[in-house]
Amino acid sequence: MPAVIDADVVRHVARLARLALSEDERETMRRELSGILEHVDQVRGLDLSEVPPTTHAIPLQNVLRDDAPRPSLPTELALREAPEVAGGGFSVGRMG
Amino acid sequence: MAGLTDLTAEQAIAALRAREISSVDLTEAHLARAEADDWHAFLAVDRDGALARAREIDAMPERPPLAGVPIGIKDALSTRDLVTTSGSKILEGFRPVYTATCVDRLERAGAVVIGKTNMDEFAMGSSTENSAYGPTLNPWDRTRVPGGSSGGSAACVAARQVPWSLGSDTGGSIRQPAALCGIVGVKPTYGAISRYGLIAFASSLDQVGPFARTVRDASLLLGHMVGRDPMDATSLDWPDPIAVPDAERLDGVRVGVVEELMGEGVDPGVRDAVEAALRTVEDLGGTLVPVHLPHSRYALSTYYLIAPAEASANLARFDGIRYGHRTDHAENLLETYENTRAEGFGPEVKRRIMLGTFALSSGYYDAYYGQAQRVRTLISRDFEEVFSQVDVVASPTSPTVAFPLGARTADPLAMYLSDICTIPVSLAGLPSASIPCGVSDGMPVGLQLAGPALSENRLLATAHALETALAFDTRPPGLA
Amino acid sequence: MSDARWEAVIGIEIHAQLLTRTKMFCGCALSFGDDPNVHTCPVCLAHPGALPVTNREAVRLAIVAGHALGCEIAERSVFSRKNYFYPDLPKAYQISQYDEPVCLGGTFRYLTEDGERTVGITRAHLEEDAAKLIHTGGDGRRAGAESSVVDFNRGGTPLLEIVTEPDLRSGAEAAAFLKQLRQTLVQLGVTDGNMEQGSMRADANISVRPAGREAFGTKTELKNMNSFTFLERGITAEIARQIAVLEDGGTITQETLHYEPTPGEITSLRSKEEAHDYRYFPEPDLVPVVPDRAWVEEIRASLPELPIDRRERWMRDLGLTFEDAEVLSETAELAGYFEAVAAVAPPKSAANWVRGELRAQLRERGEEPWESEVTPAALGEIIAMAEAREISMPNAKAVLAEVVATGAAPREVVEAKGLGAISDETELIAIVDRLLAENAAQAQQLRDGRDKVVGFFVGQAMRATQGRADPARVGELVRERALGG
């Protein structure tokens, strides 16, 4: 049985993902996600307890970097693309 | 000038080396076509930058390996100071502060970047219709899609705006548009090319790769990009240099024909063209072996759990604080986030962020994401089994030829099915190429070849031999 | 606890910034107090397309700490993404470790006056620190601030998070544990342990249960304790609060609390918009860390003696008190200095001199023993001369003062200033006899049984000899000569 995508789930997931959705968008999303989940549900029923998960198709290990400083960006370049800057920092505006 | 834009990169390099042509003239000829852009293949054309670089290369006493040949770069690749949007409104006007490693390597080797190519937003799509800046049209038929997500990079090569280009492939985004535009596209082994500077869609699947009109050109370009990059922990030390193939025979080569990808869901016209091409394998001395990928039927589901899950995290950084779009409608932090992202992302991106967030969320991880990673193991094992019997596997690249604009936009699942043949290979991280192998319904058909990890040289040699025998004309009919 | 009917159960989570040169996943230099956003790059600003690469030194320091915590160093550890939105977290996920941390299950031993205690270590894992938010307007905190800006200098600093078992029972115990944990990590060069600057931070999980009951009560998480004092006070206050609630028949709500040091108050952090759901999944941009076992062993072999082992050895082999050992092992430098002195002088005297006179004299000059003119050999020589009564105690201190000031050799100071003790008994007897004669009234008092007057004659004798007499011997002689033995 596919997981039930109802309005509450859509609202909860949209909040987790920080996406404002209108009521119409939520309904469309509910319908589309339900359809996709119905399709992907075929993998849920498989008994794969003996199968290890693949996180990397090509296995590597211990790719580490020497602790050697590299030049940082000039501050004006770091800030160049920011929508709003104040006092050398990235402005967030009013938070709370 | 038309002559200059018909040259393959290899021919252009020879002419540049012999000083028969200049990089400035070659670049100017391609710029003119890129600027006219009847297919909306480009999102940005960098005339000044390209010509300046061409002049520099022309002035060099000895030409660098790529000699000043123009190239188009998918807009998913970061290019310093050159606007890079990944096809999204959320990055409108964004000028990166650094250049992707692969682009940097090509520029050092003498490539001239003439512009950034159109794509589905954040590489999510199979038609380039998800670009926030409007779709790219197929040079073979302007009423049809070029495929995607690297539709701009495929169309610009087919339309002779550049001899070659870079795309990125997560579930088929190089191979499928190459097939739909009648050109060559190569997705190398995962890790062959550094992803540093490739705007991430699904990190465990994303790979950069070349588009070209010949396998030899694609091989040449690939050869200048592969190898370990200290900035990408998943990049690979490359064992042998990529050879530009020249063999025309397939003696002793065993080609596996994937039964699961030849049957149901594949258009008859596509199947006919692929089968005809496979007969050529035997003509060239190779053997055909029917093979099975029993778990490939789970590949689409697996992909549509893994890729959106990774994407949901990769796209979380677009929050309107350090770069990109920020909403004007926010009283607090939550509204800044939610409205910025709601305004900046298009519908398909939102859909996948939602799907991926859901698949990772508490109580569902094991059933969806965790399970998908296990199926991924089974799919890799299928390939291991198959490659104990054959050297390469073959299938259609896309189950259909290019479809009309708008035909699948209303149905996400129908769109996802476009990648049914390319996704299994992506999940296994294997090298794969699409070469044009025939025509159906007046549109080109692609043949997908794939091999074991790091087997690029054999794969490209096979592709080249077939390409030579098939003698497909990559020039779209009626192209001006 | 003061209330015997209740038992508190406390576990601590420690975040320690690692002493690397560069950040966890990029080559930006670490810094403190620089102008905002001068140590950033595409990686730590989370620019599109940028990728993390793990700092080898951070892994090494985690293994060092793991050894000191008695942990198993995992055969394989992986990084995961911990997803949540906040402006100080540029990727909107923190690269951390989830189900496969670098260090597993250990035991940290620490000393109290009652002997050795242990705290179970659940795990220790690597992660990256958040950036710094600066709130302007209002009172400098988020609530009420007109606007906030982000400084990414700190963002991406390597952190080791250490999680303990709920083995602690009081604020005092927690503070003692944390103090020694900090000391150990600092002495091993893992962190600078500066709690005020935030390079080491501790949160406490606290619950109470009726004494004798197995099951845990509902726990709260207490944050913002940036000193040992605040940690102890905060935990003590929270335990008292919980007991009061329970005794009133109330229930404890699982929540995150903030300790406000100035009024000493516990406040609840603003409730979140939704329960956290971090959606951990393996970081696809990084590959597993599988430390070479030879490397792990090499790190173990090169570890210096742990502070607790050193303290126990001093108490056992050198006869030091708990307090001596505690004070002298405060820093690795002090411990090393003391050991060098104790190698050439009786350890107990060495401890007294280093803790007492030496530190007192150096404090005025703002110097530490190991950076002063007083070499361990010189101090050892002064102690040896004093113990052999070659110089009197007051003169020994005077010699030390000269060595502190000039670095001269102690024996040369003694000779140049004629500070050597009078070893000729007849000379001392002559002085005592003279003093008894010159001070007949006091001599009579002595003979009348007022023994306190001995002190007067000793003082006179010390003055007459410029401190070169042995005061104890003088006292004996005064009694002998006055009372006729």
Per-chain topology:
The complex is a heterotrimer of chains A (96), B (480) and C (485).
Chain A: H1 7-16, H2 23-40, E1 64-65, H3 75-79, E2 85-86, E3 89-93
Antiparallel strand pairs in A: 2-3
Chain B: H1 2-6, H2 9-17, H3 23-36, E1 42-45, H4 47-59, E2 69-74, H5 101-108, E3 111-117, H6 151-158, E4 164-169, H7 175-181, E5 184-187, E6 207-212, H8 215-223, E7 254-258, H9 268-283, E8 287-291, H10 299-314, H11 333-344, H12 347-360, H13 366-386, E9 392-396, H14 412-416, H15 423-428, E10 432-440, E11 443-450, H16 456-470
Parallel strand pairs in B: 2-3, 2-4, 7-8, 7-9
Antiparallel strand pairs in B: 1-3, 4-6, 5-6, 5-10, 9-11, 10-11
Helix pairs in contact in B: 3-4, 6-7, 10-12, 10-13
Chain C: E1 6-17, E2 54-55, H1 56-68, E3 72-73, E4 80-83, E5 93-96, E6 103-112, E7 115-128, E8 132-136, E9 147-151, E10 158-164, H2 171-187, E11 200-210, E12 220-225, H3 228-247, E13 256-260, E14 265-268, E15 281-282, H4 293-301, H5 307-318, H6 322-328, H7 332-342, H8 347-365, H9 376-387, H10 393-406, H11 410-416, H12 425-438, H13 440-447, H14 453-465, H15 471-483
Parallel strand pairs in C: 12-13
Antiparallel strand pairs in C: 1-10, 1-11, 3-6, 4-5, 4-15, 6-7, 7-10, 8-9, 11-12, 13-14
Report what the structure shows.
The complex is a heterotrimer of chains A (96), B (480) and C (485). By secondary structure, chain A is an alpha+beta fold. Chain A has a domain at 7-43: Histone, subunit A. Helices cover 34% and strands 9% of the residues of chain A. Chain A contains three helices and three strands. Chain A has helices spanning 7-16, 23-40, 75-79; strands at 64-65, 85-86, 89-93. The longest helix of chain A is centred in the N-terminal third of the chain and has 18 residues, at 23-40. Chain B has a domain at 2-246: Amidase signature (AS) domain (Amidase signature (AS) enzymes, Alpha-Beta Complex). Chain B has 16 helices and eleven strands. Chain B has an eleven-stranded mixed sheet, with helices on both faces. Chain C has 15 helices and 15 strands. In chain C, 44% of the residues are buried. Chain C folds into three domains: 6-297, no CATH class; 305-416; 425-483, Arc Repressor Mutant, subunit A, CATH 1.10.10.410. The longest helix of chain C is centred in the middle third of the chain and has 20 residues, at 228-247. The mean pLDDT of chain C is 92. In chain C, helix 7 crosses helix 9 (376-387) and helix 9 (376-387) runs antiparallel to helix 10. With 485 residues, chain C is an alpha+beta fold. Classes of the chains: A alpha+beta (96), B alpha/beta (480), C alpha+beta (485). Chains in contact: A-B, A-C, B-C. Chains A and B meet through helix 1, helix 2 and strand 3 of A and helix 10, helix 11, helix 12, helix 13 and helix 14 of B. Strand 3 of chain A pairs antiparallel with strand 9 (147-151) of chain C, so a sheet runs across the interface.
